[in-house]
Specification:
By secondary structure, the protein is of the alpha/beta class. The protein has 5 helices and 9 strands; from the N terminus they run E-H-E-H-E-E-E-H-E-E-E-H-E-H. Strand 7 and strand 8 form a beta hairpin. The protein is globular.
């Protein structure tokens, strides 16, 4: 199983990679990208069985590129636009996000509901990552297990 991990935070990406290696071992092959541009390039070049995508990502992987609050959603929109069969899981450490007008905050449940309506063909789940709690491991593991089972 090929997994694309899109994460720009070194600590978080290492935590995720360690979890994936400990839990799934050689059953999976993970490719790490760190920006919206690199993720889209990877998706164009290779088929992935699953993409794990952070929500806040820079446009490019160079040092001057600032994170986009909804960079992960842009990747999902691109996957949907391509008509790709790559299912995606958003794994974010943020609990609140600015609305598109920038005037209000929406919680993670509201973001998930909105993204599921817009991107239901590619978005499987929105999972909250925490460096101090392990709930995300269980939730992400369940999503991966769905795709490891023979179809």
């Amino acid at each position: 199983m090929r997994i694309l991990l899109v994460e720009d935070d070194d600590y978080k990406s290492q935590s995720i990679l360690e979890f994936l290696a400990e839990t799934f071992g050689t059953k999976i092959d993970v490719v790490l990208t760190t920006s919206v541009h690199d993720a889209i390039s990877a998706l164009l070049e290779t088929h992935y069985d699953l993409a794990i995508v952070d929500m806040s990502l820079p446009s490019y992987s160079n040092a001057g590129s600032r994170p986009l609050g909804f960079g992960g959603a842009d990747i999902l929109r691109y996957v949907s636009f391509l008509g790709s069969s790559t299912p995606c899981v958003v794994l974010t450490q943020y609990e609140e996000f600015q609305t598109s007008d920038g005037l209000e905050l929406e919680n993670l449940a509201a973001l998930k509901a909105r993204l599921m309506l817009e991107l239901d063909s590619v978005l499987m789940d929105v999972v909250h990552y925490s460096a101090t709690a392990d709930d995300w491991r269980h939730e992400l593991g369940l999503q991966i297990e769905k795709y490891l089972r023979p179809r």
